[in-house]
Write a structure and sequence with these properties.
Distance between the termini: 44 Å
CATH architecture: 3-Layer(aba) Sandwich
Radius of gyration: 19 Å
Structural class: alpha/beta
CATH topology: Rossmann fold
CATH superfamily: NAD(P)-binding Rossmann-like Domain
Number of helices: 11
Number of strands: 12
Number of domains: 1
Strand order of the largest sheet: 3-2-1-4-5-6-10
Strand content: 15-25%
Order of helices and strands: EHEHEHEHHEHEEHEEHEEHEHH
CATH class: Alpha Beta
Length: 322
Amino acid sequence: MKTIIITGGAWFIGSNFLNKYVLSNPDINFINVDCLTYAGKLENISEDVKNSKNYFFEKIDIRDLEKLREIYKKYNPTDVIHFAAESHVDNSIKDPGIFMETNVLWTLNLLILHKEFEMWRFHYVSTDEVYWELSDDPNDKFKETTSIKPNSPYSVSKTSGDLLTLAYHRTFWLDVSVSRCSNNYWPNQDKEKLIPHFIWLLMNWKKVTLYGNGKNVRDWLYVEDHCDAIWDIFTKWKNGSVYNIWWDTEKTNLEITNTLLDAFDLDYSWISFVADRPWHDKRYAIDFSKINKELWRKPKYDFDEWIKSTIKFYKNYFNSIK
């Protein structure tokens, strides 16, 4: 029976992945390995999934190689999908060390055991932040062949795990793939992230704080589209492949902010512009032609529709925990 280790399954993207794919694949065991930091919450896992016979949870810090090895001996896993990562850029600027320690060492330990246990597939969930920043030209987009040049401690740590995964493929012939995604949104995201953070502030009648002039551009991806793309890559990939995962919805941070303000019937005066963070990349955008051509992936969810559902979700959620 196929048994997949899912790292960081109590976090934002990992929990959304488990909530969909555990129930739809009763013939596959899913082992959620998570150390439950501030961003990892078991409440993110649906009760149906928790009660499923093919779902298992192990609380462990995967920096501890020996304890992780015991988990592998216990379950004899066949594959890994590696979601777990420290992910907030601001936190990486405050404490770069923890990002390098967790994001790189976590990945290395998983790869060591993948080779040791002679497992099958290893998928590494990376980020478009590995690439650097783009010009204002709308035709200028990240391709899988774009040069890598990360600028923040967070993106350096993710790049290290990304390249380490590919190095294990080239050196040890491990069956690996890497996906690099744009900004995700929808449920279970920690309120340090832009959309839930701003909703939380507005619900508490506080101004939102926007870096610089708010004109930094990001490409926004509905989390279920991201999870579906990962599953397609995991089940259909060619060994050693890298895929960009996209939405093709470029928005400035100011545009996102105005959308949230409109949902609360508030105006521009509720924005407090603050000093920009160090080397704040101006624009990210993804060329999705490879995944579209090879896996026939197209996004299902329209941003203008689903941002409304996202706002409604967080309003209800934050009201429930007040």
